Amino acid sequence: MLIQYKQKLFMPKITLTIAILFLFSFSAFSQKAIISGVVTDSKDKTAVHNSVVALLTPVDSILYRFTRSDKKGNFNLKNVKAGNYILMTSHSQYADYVDAIIVNDNDKNLGTIALKSKIEVLREVVVKTGSIRIKGDTTSYRASDFKVDANANVEELLKKLPGIQVDRNGVIKAMGETVQKVLVDGEEFFGDDPGMAVKNLRADAVKEVQVFNKKSEQAEFTGIDDGKTQKTINLKLKEDKKKGYFGKIDGANQPFTDADSRYNTNLMVSSFKGKRKLSAFLLNGNTGQDGLSWEDSEKFGARDGNISMNMDDDGNVSYEWVGGSNDGEPYVNTQNGFIKNTNAGIQYTNKWNEKQNLNVSPKFNQQIYTNNNSRISQTQVGDTFLNEESSTETNVNRRNFKLNAVYDVKLDSVNSIKFSAKTNFYQTQSDEFTNRKTTGEADVLKNKQQRTFITDSDKSALSAGLLFKHKFAKARRTFSFSSSWSLLNTNSNNILKSSNESYINGNFDSKVDVNQNKIGDRANQNFTASVSYSEPIAKQLALQFSYQITYDKGKNNYFTYDYSEDTAKYDELVTSLSNQFEQAVVTQRPNVRLSYNAKKINYSIGSGFGFTTFDLQDLSMNKEYKRNYTNFFPSANFSYKYKSNSNLRFDYQGSTRQPSLEQLQPLRNNQDFFNQTLGNPDLKQSFTNRININQNSYNMLTETQIYQGLSFSTTANQIIYNSTIDPETAKTISKPINSNGNFSANFYFGYGLKIKKIDLYADFRPNINYNKSVISINDKMGDTKNLNTGFSVYLSKYKQKKYDISLSNRFSYNRSSTTQNSEVKSFNTNELNLNLGVFLGEKWKLSTDYNLSTRQKTIDFQDNLTNQLWNARLQRTFKKDEFTAYIMVRDILNQNIGIQRNVYQNTISQEQNDRLKRYAMIGFTWNFKNGGETAKK
Question: Which residues does the UniProt record annotate as the domain Outer membrane protein beta-barrel (predicted)?
């Protein structure tokens, strides 16, 4: 097949000329094969004169033979030995042509080679081979050329593609950048979760894998690059897979057990009819394989309750969970504990007349989670040390229903309108039982606590958006209007029962029993409207003008009632623990941006002003806080595509962050009697300056990639918590305050290459991270400094139907210090991972993975922390790989221990959680497809 591109991928012109002269002097004439052909212009079919035609050896890309085309475009390469070669042409006015050819002892006529002019390809790289094609910033892989196991999913396919890595946690990286979106035929697949497509779609349904930087919707519309991109993978399905249906059913169960056996049941099916696509999935099990991670829980609404407003450099308002919640919902990390999980969803997409597009995706999730946690910690307060021991039993039942819908209509050739809507209903019931004691030096008892906290929480998130776009007759002159509305509601009804004992010099002093009903009613409503206009002022220059207004209103009503022995009800209001608080924020944001867009260089410089009005009302205390801010939001980005598939990028932005409603509300949270929090209505907004520099270079023919990045950020008025700690009673009151002097710096480097002589892929990744954060203890300011350096190595090799092996190792050095403690704490960690698959004949395969994790002992922890995880699976396929039977064993060595050690500010801690240990499962998979296709085959 053809390979056409405009820049040289193998060597500069000078190097090529020297190599040609050298080989010309030492040409051998022992072979008789002649390679001939004619070079023409692809457009007008005229002969291309004086084009270099060269043969290179595919292993090391060294020049073997060369010649030039004559006035009629003809060329002849004589005395060519039999073997495999890369044929390449080079001409100053045409894009290069590359093709893989096989030469035997007979003469070979390649026929006509049609070259495209550089003007015609608009300076874009176009590479076409049997497996890989590059055009501009898009790299495409022909899926069928990368062999995977029968019935493998897309994730296994991605692991085979050069330049793409998938780590053991399922994170996908392409050319050194983390993939944020995975599309199927250009459409979102069950929302924006990359794992849904790569883990559940079959690899044999994919025709092509495309990797590219997806521009923002506004940039795609205006044609003006705003510097906002997301690394994206698009899975193009085979045409025959878009007719009828395909899917899989997988079930596995633990044998020879009684009631508490391990099981998984997974169903995935997709149906196609014309432009209509319908997919559905059901995942059910108790091994944690499909449990929600902490990042996933954000998508399902777990963080909706406690929101901080953030305005970025483009005036967009977003909301972020910032920690702490009067709901008191337990933190669920599905790597720990035991979880029963049910995930189900349906996706429907359809297009009518190429003008109307509908995408609807409802999803349901339920988690039943249990865990036992034990924790020991030591906190330094001045010259005093406080030691804490605790054990917590957690039981959680969470349910979530989520619906996304998008309706996009092209009204005519210049106008379009897009409607979007999202709903998220989230319900949690949980109970948490804690026993804890705190001692001082010489194990002198400070306090003891027994606590039960029962949660019943309902959350709902509703949002709707409208986007109207209009293109004028003049190119790049556009107008758009957008508006959005969102509502976050949280209702909680919680019970707190605790027995809290205080001691002085180890002797009992006092006891406080708490039995309270805590009722919370919180809501946050946002409305945003904006207009944008772009005007080209030159061929490569454009101005963008925009104006945005945002209205944000929130309320937080929280009431605490004591239990009354007389009425046997919770009917005695505790005014010190109750409060009604409202917040209204109005922001107006004009913005102007100058953009320059060329084939190699793109940049934009812009700035906006934010005029923000705060109106905070403490209804319980009858106090009002009004503030007005004028903010300056500078931003700049620059990108330079210095050669094919290589780029350098610089970004700078300034942004504000508003304190959350809960941080502002002067309400004491006594959920933990000895560790309470208090809001601060005098908090100021913070401002962050952030700089990112990234470079990425990838050579597809040599399968070599180099990537590096440097980032630096500093925040003024960053919100931290001042901890007032009484060393006698070990009681802590934390209050948010503003601080200065916080910054972080990060650097990473990566180099990946294919060692062709042994067909081995290798990747090397050093990194350095440093951050300084301000801390405040007993109103005394200090800081904590953390340094983390690491070096990772990744090796992989596979041979079709023989073996598949990958080995990775990450070494890390950690160093931390704090002004609260003169002692510097440092330790090393190392993580080794081995994945091996061996084929035993045509139908059998044995797979195993091994992880060795080690953590060096420290002054505080006198033992090295080491554990090994070893899993194995044996499978056999039947009936042309339609069926698969397997047996698997998890944690063969029974060492899956959930121990974690942490150093944070003036506290060191170690905690242990329940983990799912050794078990075995027997399973069966049926990969099915419509009978019509099977019959045709």
Answer: 470-776, 785-926
Please say which residue of 121, 146, 167 terminates a domain.
121
Q: Is 108 found in the same domain as 130?
A: no
Residue 136 covered by a domain: yes
In 3D space, the residue among 235, 345, 347 whose CA is nearest the CA of residue 300 turns out to be 345
Whether 116 and 130 map to the same domain: the answer is no
In a domain, 797, yes or no: no
My answer on whether 145 and 89 are in the same domain is: no
Would you tell me how many other CB atoms lie within 10 Å of the CB of residue 95? 25
Within 10 A of 39 (CB to CB), how many other CB atoms are there? 27
pLDDT at 224: 63
Query: What is the sign of the dihedral through the CA atoms of 63, 68, 73 and 77?
Result: negative
Does residue 562 form part of some domain?
A: no
Instruction: Using DSSP, state whether 25 is helix, strand or coil.
Output: helix
Tokens representing residue 419 in the block: 């409607």
Q: CA 17, 21, 22, 28 torsion: positive or negative?
A: positive
Element (H, E) at 690: strand 686-699
Local structure of residue 242 (DSSP, 8 states) = G
Residue 639's nearest CA partner among 233, 215, 135 is 215
Among candidate residues 901, 873, 815, 783, the one with its CA nearest the CA of residue 252: 873
| Distance separating alpha carbons of residues 84 and 57, to the nearest angstrom | 7
Block mean pLDDT (10 aa), the chain, length 937: 35 41 41 84 86 82 84 89 86 83 86 80 48 69 78 79 71 75 78 68 84 75 67 83 81 83 88 85 80 35 34 33 47 80 90 89 91 90 86 93 93 92 92 94 91 94 94 89 93 94 91 94 92 91 92 92 93 91 90 86 86 86 84 85 80 85 84 89 89 81 80 93 88 92 92 84 91 89 90 86 88 86 82 92 90 83 84 91 92 88 80 90 87 41
SS3 86: strand
Closest CA to 423 of 346, 486, 367, 484: 486
Domain boundary among 80, 104, 121: 121
- Find all residues with CB under 8 Å of 60, minimum gap 6, and list them: 756
Q: State the pairing for strand pair 126-128/52-56.
A: unpaired
Distances (CA, A) of 733 to 331, 722, 736: 21, 8, 10
Q: Quote the domain boundaries for residue 45.
A: 32-121
| Residue 188 belongs to some domain of the structure | yes
Report the distance separating Cα 628 and Cα 664, nearest Å. Answer: 16
Q: Where are the beta strands (DSSP E) in 116-155?
A: 126-128, 132-135, 138-142
Q: Looking at the structure, do residues 90 and 167 belong to the same domain, yes or no?
A: no
Same domain assignment for residues 98 and 177: no
CATH code at 162? 2.170.130.10
Coil, helix or strand for 825?
Answer: strand
Q: Are residues 117 and 36 in the same domain?
A: yes
> Are residues 226 and 159 part of one domain?
yes
Question: Where do we find the tokens 């924790």?
Answer: 375
DSSP 713-769: EEEETEEEEEEEEETTTTEEEEEEEEE--EEEEEEEEEEEEEETTTTEEEEEEEEEE
Whether residues 135 and 200 share a domain: the answer is yes
385 touches 441 (CB < 8 A): yes
Domain count within the chain: 2
Angle at the Cα of 446 from the Cα atoms of 442 and 449, rounded to 5 degrees = 130
In this predicted model, what pLDDT tens digit does every residue of 143-162 receive, in sequence order? 887 777 766 778 888 877 87
